[in-house]
Structure prediction request, 117 residues.
Amino acid sequence: MSRSHGSGTGPESTVEFWSANQPGLKWLEAPDHVSVTPEANAAIRSDRYRREAHLEHVAGFGDHAGQTVAEVGCRVGTDGSRFLEDGARYLGVDQSGVAVRTAPGRCARRAWDSRAG
Prediction:
């Protein structure tokens, strides 16, 4: 069953919106800049877990060592980097090109697979 969303609310608009409004983008040097400095990485992480402190418990980052974790809507890889640091394999998927380009750099030297949706 197909529903009409009207002008500006279809899948293309969703991709455009999240590409321009990725959580964590304010910490990047430019909206399409994919390199994240250690300082910016720390700021992104601090901001994320201060605002959403429940994620530490709900995600159980350290509970998945040796397992594969898949995340749909991985954004710029904040949670993915936590899973990787705690020994999980990680698959991050996001429809935003800026997220897909940024997340792997945040997880440098770790097993990372990221694909655009």
User: Anything to note?
Assistant: Residues 1-7, 109-117 have pLDDT under 50 and may be disordered.
